[in-house]
Amino acid sequence: MTSLARFRPALPRRMVLPAILLAALLVVPFAAPLITPHDPVQIAVRDRLAAPSLEHWLGQDEFGRDRLARVLYGGQVSLMVAFTATTLACIVGTLFGLIGAYFRGPFEFLTTRLADVVLCFPPILLALLVVTLFGPGTGTLISVLSVLYFPAFARIAFSEALRVSALDFVAASRALGTPSRRIVMGTILPNIAGPVSVQYSLTAAAAITIESGLSFLGLGVVPPAPSWGQMIRGARQFMNQDPLGIIIPCVALTLTIYAINFFCDRLRDTLDPKGATGGGKDDVSVPVAGNATPVEDADVVAVIRDLRLEVRQPGRSVEVIRDVSLTLRANQCTALVGESGSGKSLSSLALMGLLPGAIRQAGGSLMLRRKSGQMVDLGALGPKALEGLRGNDLAMIFQEPMTSLNPVHKVGAQMVEAIRAHRKVPPAEAKARAISLLELVGINEPARRFDGYPHEMSGGMRQRVMIAMALSCEPRLLIADEPTTALDVTIQAEIIELLQRLRSEYAEGLSLLFISHNLGVVAEIADRVAVMYSGQVVEEGPAAQVLADPHHPYTVALLESMPSAHDEMHSARGDRLRAIEGTPPLPDRRPSGCAFRTRCPVALPACAGIEPPLYQSGERSARCIRAPEAGEQAA
Ligand SMILES: Nc1ncnc2c1ncn2[C@@H]1O[C@H](COP(=O)(O)OP(=O)(O)OP(=O)(O)O)[C@@H](O)[C@H]1O
Prior knowledge:
By secondary structure, the protein is of the alpha/beta class. The chain has helices at 2-7, 13-30, 32-35, 67-103, 105-119, 123-134, 138-165, 168-175, 180-216, 228-236, 244-271, 344-352, 383-389, 401-404, 411-422, 427-440, 446-450, 459-471, 489-505, 519-525, 543-548, 553-560, 567-573, 627-634, and strands spanning 300-313, 316-329, 332-337, 359-369, 375-377, 394-397, 477-481, 511-516, 528-533, 536-542, 615-617, 620-622. It is built from 24 helices and twelve strands.
């Protein structure tokens, strides 16, 4: 039992229903001899148009043939023709598209021109022409349908492969000397699998319809062999007397097309790793029952308590965020720092209710105080309620001002839209507010900039616009995810100064959650700092104290590895820069005990045995068994 369970192929839950439905529709026609003993071509003229009976469950057709046998055996023919033709078209078209897009030059010319030539002919006319020339029959149908549908695959594969080829990871593979065949099949093909699989579903459905249409016209499957198109053709003349005759093949057609579309739609979502496992109710952030307790202190704007996030992989779940707790207060800036992959972004995205599809909340609670003063459990809110909160009660600015603004809309239109999403104000009033916000964030000639496009602005100006948009509805919590990383040093300083100024001028009492790699910037802006490592907060406390006198060896190492002009950081590290040895462990390869112990210069044998809790010392806490020691020394 255990070994069977271990070797059971892990079919994602979202695929189970469509797979069962499709498998049933595909298997049932091929199990026809087990379901009915009747011959689909055996005529019984005496019993023509007979009603359903115990012997003939779906009745008999105009020649007295058993309808159940005909719909089942007819399904075999229709499905075989449609799937063989679609698979051939998919393989040939996708290969053409991939080769044309990757190698360009004559390959591109051949792919696009060949596809253009075939696309010039209306499909049904081309099919009629070929069938008339070569005579009806299953082989002709498969050939004509493959030729008809290959250009659609070639075009989709070509345009998607062009897009993917231009991405950095393909350039990186080329730079590493990876052979072209491996880049095309191993790197580009998986990235275009989503749109190609959608095209497959549409084509298979269309091929079934065209096969039925041609058979209906007498140009498809040759009688007396059954097919759904032929059944409709035969039943058409008697449809007033015997509607069942036409309903049965139509229902079979509709169900099959629906099952194929349903399956391919889910398959596309499953194949796309970015959106993987999204969609099912259990896959979005689910309300977590129980341990969310209201917070009385009116200064507290948000509380993250024991947050656990996990990524679902086939057959298992991996914890990427573990027991993260943070309290964010009004008029306070809390900085989240840590190496890449430590979990800073996911923790903040969880607050926004914007976790990627593959990540789900497995435990803990996220509480937010609304502008009304009411404390809400974000995990218990539905998508609509969360939408109402985002931009209104909490807002976020991102790292890349170049891509955060929509390039095809004017700056002003985007700001007005953000304002009117939460406030029922007339457009003129929203415009006036947008212009005053642009002025507030230090944009010169705000009225002129209001009518400009994002590409007419510098990176620093765009980040100012993003900040203005984020503050447009006066949220109580602003999350800034590395807002200055993409900017040059002087602009960075201006943006930090702007955030500081806005914070001090903010009447409502803004809580700022500031995510950064840059400890110099953190020293300048943060009141409190939380250091993250491998999905956990390993040290937390007042920024000045933590940066000047870190209690966790990871914080010490982080400070020693970063250049900074700030005095409090000099005292912690002397003046030499030192890289942190090794790399952070992957979430599924953490060592036993303390996750930092394999890189820690002061690790003890005991560190392998226990996962250290957060040791509290006054306003500070650190997740290290040596933290109490460090606290005593400092005292
Ligand atoms: N969509 C995802 N699917 C699977 N794992 C993910 C996903 N997003 C993040 N992770 C994993 O979660 C962990 C935390 O990632 P996160 O993006 O929060 O790190 P970060 O500290 O913000 O890094 P950076 O500073 O580079 O943005 C990492 O191990 C990362 O690989």
